Amino acid sequence: MKKLGDVVVVAPDSPQSGMGHAITIGETLRLYEEDIFEDVVAFKSSGTPADCVKLAKHHVLKERKPDLVVSGINHGSNTSISVLYSGTMSAAIEGALEGYPSIGFSLCDYSSKAEFDHLEEYVYKICKQVLDHGMAKGVALNVNFPPKRNESIRGIKICRQAHAKWQEVFEERFDPNGRNYFWMAGNFVNFDKGEDNDEWAIANNYVSIVPCQYDLTAHHAISQMNQDWNWEMF
Amino acid sequence: MKKLGDVVVVAPDSPQSGMGHAITIGETLRLYEEDIFEDVVAFKSSGTPADCVKLAKHHVLKERKPDLVVSGINHGSNTSISVLYSGTMSAAIEGALEGYPSIGFSLCDYSSKAEFDHLEEYVYKICKQVLDHGMAKGVALNVNFPPKRNESIRGIKICRQAHAKWQEVFEERFDPNGRNYFWMAGNFVNFDKGEDNDEWAIANNYVSIVPCQYDLTAHHAISQMNQDWNWEMF
């Protein structure tokens, strides 16, 4: 990011896997400046990824408007339905809500030895395109990179979110006091046969970019509900 | 709900305001049966609202398929953009993801003295409509009730999500050790001039029902990005 402009970091002070679009309500937030990167103003916060964007806007940047909000690189996939559970993407969507061009980056590799170096040119290129072309109002990009394979990355695909889900498995265990507890684990199940979605792109060694928005309205369902349902009981 | 069928409750053991679609990753979950309602099987969990739906499906109900997933009534509004931050609605969306007809209910009244009794017939009516008509695949209903006013509720409106946002204010304070901390507060700002949205419905004393879905793809942005942007650098 330093090649593109002045960088200000506001990051959570602990892992935020599965944090979704959670925000901190009814509890206090901490925010401390940290001297960790050269030529970069950096803060750490006790809040969620979405909190960090709000703190950056209202407390750190105040009147200064960022040219770009970037979240990640997340260590692990945020393709398909994972966008709902993703703290990384919720920060990007929070940025879009504020009217800023916003991008969430993720690497589809959960290995502790995952390599990130080869992504640098792609991150730069994608950010540059967004800075040059702007972004449609209310849209944030969900960018996922394939894991490092023998073949180099084949290119970039603009995609829709694949139709897929997590199939959870709960493993029951007992603590030293004999009380039970659960570990949640999940298997990703892809129902999507199309080739225009992010799962297909990653499987075929492309970078996937899904433009995302935050209007959850199922517009197609409105007229049907108005037509078929009976609301006249009262 | 007991008028409509057999009820199984799986609820978080603590307040979940602003929890969004968070799930518990890398930490254990607790789940205990509680004898709190007559003729109702009830569990409490240390997890988030979305976790509770997953636990209900995979551990509590196992092979039994629910006819309806109901979340709430939330004490406070989940209209418009608040759907993103809402644990109540994330539980309903999680239900829709699993293929169950799902509804999140909220009362647009933050008062500790908020009255819920007058909503019972509406909750019953809306659930009955969903059981009778079924729900479009992948759709969950976001139902909001107006606060109790002198005039009685005027009816039910099927709506789209209003275009609005929270404008945060961070109040900085200092703890007894002199370290700073923040309270986040927010003002709701409604940009929407339309009359087909949930904010309009609530302001005009209607019950609002927004059908919601979980495909965040900004489909309208895909062709534009394919047309205008240059991805051919590599």
Describe the structure.
Two copies of one chain form a homodimer. Chain A has 234 residues and is α/β, with parallel strands linked by helices. Chain A has one domain: Survival protein SurE-like phosphatase/nucleotidase (Stationary-phase Survival Protein Sure Homolog, Chain: A). In chain A, 25% of the residues lie in helices and 27% in strands. Chain A contains six helices and ten strands; from the N terminus they run E-E-E-H-E-H-H-E-H-E-E-E-E-H-E-H. A five-stranded mixed sheet of chain A has the order 4-5-6-10-7. In chain A, helix 1 crosses helix 3. The longest helix of chain A is centred in the middle third of the chain and has 14 residues. The N and C termini of chain A lie far apart (58 Å). At the A-B interface, helix 1, helix 2, helix 3, helix 4 and strand 8 of A face helix 1, helix 2, helix 3, helix 4 and strand 7 of B.
